[in-house]
Amino acid sequence: MGQTMVASVHVPVLVEEAIKALAVQPGGRYIDATLGGGGHAAAILEQSSPGGQLLGIEADPEAIQIARTRLEAWSDVALLINENFVNLEAICYKYDFSPVHGILFDPGLSSLQLDSPDRGFSFQHDAPLDMRLSPDQKLTAADIVNTYSETELAQLIQRYGEEGYSRQIAHRIVSERPLRTTLQLAQLIERVYGGRRGRIHPATKTFQALRIAVNQELDNLELALKQAVNLLGFGGRLVVISYHSLEDRIVKQFMQREARDCVCPPGVPTCVCGHTASLKLINKKVITPSPEEVQKNPRSRSARLRVAERLITQDEHYQFVERLCSSVEVKANGWRRPILLQKLRRAFLVA
Ligand SMILES: C[S@@+](CC[C@H](N)C(=O)[O-])C[C@H]1O[C@@H](n2cnc3c(N)ncnc32)[C@H](O)[C@@H]1O
């Protein structure tokens, strides 16, 4: 993978709004599931000081290096893990990091990755069709483009790119492959469109579709959101910033479903699902960047922030506290248990 990511800077999006939505408080414990350049993480650490802790997760080994440098001053309270957030619960249990006061997802790509000339995410640079977040992943964009059938390609481009010309693009890909580089693919799509018109490059949607497929972005987000709920303490906040309608739909539907006591299909006379609400919606209306932010950072224009708060039964809460106590108790040889219990009750707002 490339060596050029450091040349660019990622400007974090909706920082103040995210901190407010997370209700960051001194001494709180937070997870940044998409560390990126560490911008949101730095703001969380500042706001949760003194006594705050942060677990940062980042799939891209190049990105986490940059975040490590940026967050060096907090190395005693920030644990940064090079992992995929699809393993969120396992990571938290491994590092004994739950329950938490808040979890932030800011998925997709950072400017560092988009602007990197050799990662293959952008058609602005000629690069191998790679698009993997991590070199540990097997499937690349070139594998998809060169091995999927025309029907599979058309479906993928339509589903993940919402591209109107998906069938024509898939047909052209199959007749011109093998395709090796981003520019080959971008120029092929330009030809399908009959040239470039308007501000948006015709390859934008296809590139988005390939990136989503390579990194299983939507499936991983959905799986991680379910795990996130299990890690939040009472009143803990789940905050998600999404950048396209497919992502936002997943977040919206997930939060709405989790905010309902019954999720039986309409028409079922009595509830048979046994579902109980685990979240309360905090913002009914999605939060978007101010015109000033969009002007300063045009890449923020499509950002949409949603926030929900963890509802928890008294039983679930005491299970959390017990788990926390026993893990800390082992380290403290048992003698601090009453003080810890008191502190934890206060931290998680239970009388
Ligand atoms: C928009 S950037 C986050 C920027 C960050 N909030 C900041 O302030 O710099 C998204 C980051 O999430 C990472 N990412 C995306 N999907 C991921 C996943 N499934 N697991 C872990 N990291 C992921 C990307 O590699 C990228 O660095």
Description of the structure:
This protein has helices at 15-22, 39-47, 61-70, 88-94, 111-114, 141-147, 150-161, 166-176, 182-193, 204-214, 217-231, 245-258, 291-296, 314-332, 337-347; strands at residues 29-32, 53-58, 78-82, 100-105, 232-242, 279-281, 304-310. It is an alpha/beta fold and 351 residues long. The chain has a 7-stranded mixed beta sheet with strand order 3-2-1-4-5-7-6, with helices on both faces. Strand 1, helix 2 and strand 2 form a beta-alpha-beta unit. The longest helix is centred in the C-terminal third of the chain and has 19 residues, at 314-332. The structure holds S-adenosylmethionine. S-adenosylmethionine (SAM) is lined by residues 10, 12, 34, 36-40, 57-60, 63, 84-86, 106-110, 133, 220.
List keywords for this structure.
DNA polymerase, domain 1; 7-stranded mixed beta sheet; single chain; 351 residues; Rossmann fold; alpha/beta; globular; 2 domains; binds S-adenosylmethionine
Can you summarize this structure?
With 351 residues, this protein is α/β, with parallel strands linked by helices. The protein has 15 helices and seven strands. Helix 1 packs across helix 2 and helix 8 crosses helix 9.
